[in-house]
Design brief:
2 domains, Nucleoside Triphosphate Pyrophosphohydrolase, Arc Repressor Mutant, subunit A, DNA-binding, 3-stranded antiparallel β-sheet, alpha+beta, disordered N terminus, homodimer, 26% strand, 26% helix, 6-stranded mixed β-sheet, 241 residues
DNA sequence: ACAAAAGTGTTCAAATTACACCCATGG
DNA sequence: CCATGGGTGTAATTTGAACACTTTTGT
């Protein structure tokens, strides 16, 4: 208790320490994209001289009049031009020495965007897509943040239909399967995969075909959000451990 | 970008805003316990006059020389005397007006403790166990925090063997089943439940029986951590959505 | 015509569910 | 002896896994 008592700053008997307004908070957005069959992450060359030449995920300090969700939304809007992206809090990182300029606590967000989206204008050439598998060292603790978000991504795509955010609006079943396989590093049997996905009722037949492919074109589907919303509440109780 | 530019405090062209060390960070520990067949949460009467008479979960401000994990660990140690409890970060809450004294961002932790643990000494009568189902309004945004942690608990006990933290070291299968049922609000078939749990290999037969029960005594088991560690890595790929 | 992937069913194994009787203990 | 829950097995159903051939398109 000694540290706590040492920080008390009035006479009121308090059970806990008093606020110490000496922290800065930031958000870091791990933005995943999928291009040419490869899972990618959007990185920027670090601002700080201490990390010169190293890449980091997109972040910014939280402003005093915004919450974390808004801050991360702002970062994505400013960087990519997108405004309706999938964005979700993952974890908060708080190692004492994680930021050279002082005590900065950062909350990591995961975002899934469609790289081919027309709104997505990345002109800044200090901002680039990197294949996730090629990223080794990064500025700050961003490698840890990236790895954590990648684990979260792997888990979440199996629990919720968020993977569609990485594809264009209309996609073939092959696109979808290859994307699952790229992220999870496993291979699915094509027939079983199709059966399973159709069974969810989440695929809307767009009654269109691929074009320009050097083989028999596949049908195009889109994510049927309405159908998913209806089934969503289903209680899953497996005790799978 | 206007807000960001407004906060720049030097001449260096920066892509992002500069740190604003005007925040306080706290941790809030949602401590779950299980007693008399009821899931409970450990709450304390609020410190603040604004929330007089209302209950809140156990929290404290993060000190400038500790990270969030250490801060939450400290809170639990100081409050309950326990030192080796299950403790895991859940989510960070950051609404601008969540704390009346200023901009306090809090990170919620979930903890599972054994209420009957001998180390657990709760003398302070402003600190009490409440049945989770009875908690309605709370101080700050703590009801939201509690609800979030309860959802997380429900999900996690189905994915990882953390539920054993709520039971005494030796327990009967009945204890375990009732606890699952209490948390998930569903009922299991007793035979299937036993089959499933035995199949995990995580139950170690303690070759002891219950005593003092007004019916045929059941065998006592403990959680076989070693057996679990071996099986843990098994790749689960279900695409269950 | 060839290469490449689309589309499509069945069979087998495994997991899950539903279900009922006798047993041991305390009161 | 009665009430309460302990302990056990089997059959039916559902789900998941493995597997091959024909079709369509571009080159």
């Amino acid at each position: 208790m000694s540290e706590v008592n040492a920080l008390k700053n009035d006479d009121t008997p308090k059970r806990v320490g008093s606020p110490v307004f000496q922290f800065s908070n930031s958000v870091d957005c791990v933005i995943f994209g999928y291009d040419a069959g490869v899972l990618k992450v959007l990185l920027i060359k670090s601002d700080l001289p201490q990390f010169f030449g190293q890449w980091s995920v997109l972040g910014d300090h939280v402003l005093v009049d915004e919450d974390l969700d808004r801050a991360s939304y702002r970062v994505l809007r400013e960087r990519t031009g997108l405004t309706n992206m999938f964005l979700e809090q993952v974890k908060t990182f708080s190692a004492i020495d994680r930021h050279p300029n002082g005590r900065v606590i950062t909350t990591a967000y995961i975002s899934l965007v469609n790289v081919k989206d027309h709104q997505l204008n990345i002109l800044d050439n200090e901002l680039q897509w990197h294949p996730v598998a090629d990223v080794t060292t990064m500025a700050f603790d961003h490698k840890l943040i990236l790895d954590t978000c990648l684990s979260t991504l792997r888990k979440k795509i199996q629990e919720e239909p968020i993977i569609f955010n990485l594809l264009e609006k209309k996609f073939s079943l092959r696109d979808l399967q290859l994307l699952f396989e790229e992220i999870l590093h496993i291979e699915f049997d094509r027939r079983n995969f199709r059966k399973k996905l159709f069974a969810t009722g989440m695929l809307k037949d767009e009654h269109e075909m691929e074009s320009g492919v050097p083989h028999r074109p596949g049908k195009l589907y889109s994510f049927n959000k309405e159908a998913f919303e209806k089934v969503k509440g289903k209680s899953f109780v497996g005790l799978q451990f």
